Amino acid sequence: MMTIQQKWYETTVKAVGGRDGFVESSSPEFHQKISTPREMGGPGGEGTNPEQLFAAGYSACFDSALNLVARQKRIKIEGSEVTATVSFGKTEDGGFGIAVVLNILVKGVDYETAVSLAEGAHAVCPYSRATRGNIAVDINVIKEHSFGGGY
Question: Where is the composition biased (Polar residues) (predicted)?
Answer without folding.
Answer: 25-35
